[in-house]
Amino acid sequence: LFGTRAGRRALQLVRNNEIDLVHGLGASVLGYARARRTVNAPLVFNPQGLEEFGATDPSRARLKRAAYLPLRRAVLTCARAADAVLATDRSLQPAVLRHLRVPAARVRVIPNALDLRLVDDVADAAAVRELAGRAGIRDGEAVLLSVGRLERNKGFHVLLQALAAAREHGAFHERPWRWVIAGDGPFRGHLEALVERLSLQKEVDFRGPIADAEIHAWYELAMLFVHPTLYEGSSLVTLEAMAHRRAVVASTAGGLPDKVRPNVNGWLVPPGDPGALAAAISGALADPDRLERFGRAGRAIVEQEFSWQAAGDATVALYRELLREQSGRQPG
């Protein structure tokens, strides 16, 4: 196992006084966790998405329970040996506590974060204009954007039903519009068939897998970002949309409520509810000034809570706290 070998290497570095603290992702520090009681260097453990446990939806783990069993055992070993266990969102803390069964005092929230300098650098105005021309975006066209792998659990079929309902109720006010989906996957055929059944061929634009620079150009072109997922971990694509000052309509799955805040930077709806999703989209498109205001608020949330600077500061503060505690426990 990689986790055994990598963890033993970390253990060797600790015993050689070359490092003072170990920070591991997933089961990558298993070898160190097994020997944690024999050394002084604190262990910070990030269990990541907890997919092997089903994360926020334990029913997802049933089909793969046998295959995931060794990984679950390894993750539990790491968590129980850790001085601090990280949750990447406040709303994921209950899942961390439930699956890993560690004391609540040991669980800390440090979110996944974005490099805002990189996001700003790729938001090139010339590239955005070129993409708009190449994609045939018309003046005044409302572009709704989603980004993700085309799988059933992403909820894009629910969004298609919502878009059809919103169109029937006049949500687009006779203006041209399209839903752009960046990504590919095994559910694409089902989605394409649903597009035909709902007569949305003219409004749905499957872009397939595209380069990061083009995805960021689409964020700039979009009026609204929609993330209808049925299951979610942390959702970096939602953070990216917010970093580009886009208002967001999303489901309440996973860590999304930590990012999308009703009446601040977007709208939240129950997963799998096309009616609620249609109503949220209709409300969003009805007030362009509010979309712009929500977009600015979303960027501020990322800067203050989900930037590399914010996450880095929180991580360093945790390291210092654990090292002070460890120093206090050592014989004077």
Provide an overview of this structure.
- The chain is an alpha/beta fold and 332 residues long.
- The protein folds into two domains: 2-113 and 308-329, Rossmann fold (3-Layer(aba) Sandwich); 116-306, Glycogen Phosphorylase B (Rossmann fold, 3-Layer(aba) Sandwich), CATH 3.40.50.2000.
- Helix content is 47%, strand content 13%.
- The protein contains 13 helices and ten strands.
- The chain has helices at residues 2-15, 30-34, 65-81, 93-100, 116-122, 125-135, 156-168, 188-197, 212-221, 236-243, 274-285, 288-306, 308-329, and strands at 22-25, 43-46, 84-87, 107-109, 142-147, 177-182, 204-208, 224-227, 248-251, 266-269.
- The strands form two sheets. The protein has a six-stranded parallel β-sheet, sandwiched between helices. A four-stranded parallel β-sheet has the order 1-2-3-4, covered by helices on one side.
- Strand 1, helix 2 (30-34) and strand 2 form a beta-alpha-beta unit.
- The protein is elongated, with a radius of gyration of 22 Å.
- The model has no long low-confidence stretch (mean pLDDT 92).
The coarse silhouette is elongated
- CATH class assignment of the largest domain: Alpha Beta
- What's the number of helices? 13
> Which topology of the largest domain does CATH recognise?
Rossmann fold
Number of domains: 2
- What percent of the residues sit in helical stretches (DSSP H or I)? 40-55%
Q: Low-confidence parts lasting 5 or more residues at pLDDT below 50?
A: none
Radius of gyration: 22 Å
Count all strands and give the number: 10
Order of helices and strands: HEHEHEHEHHEHEHEHEHEEHHH
Mean pLDDT: 92
Assembly state here? Answer: single chain
Separation, N- and C-terminal Cα atoms: 38 Å
Strand fraction: 5-15%
Main sheet: strand order:
7-6-5-8-9-10
CATH architecture of the largest domain: 3-Layer(aba) Sandwich
Q: Name the CATH superfamily classification of the largest domain.
A: Glycogen Phosphorylase B
Largest sheet: 6 strands, parallel
Q: What class, by secondary structure content? A: alpha/beta
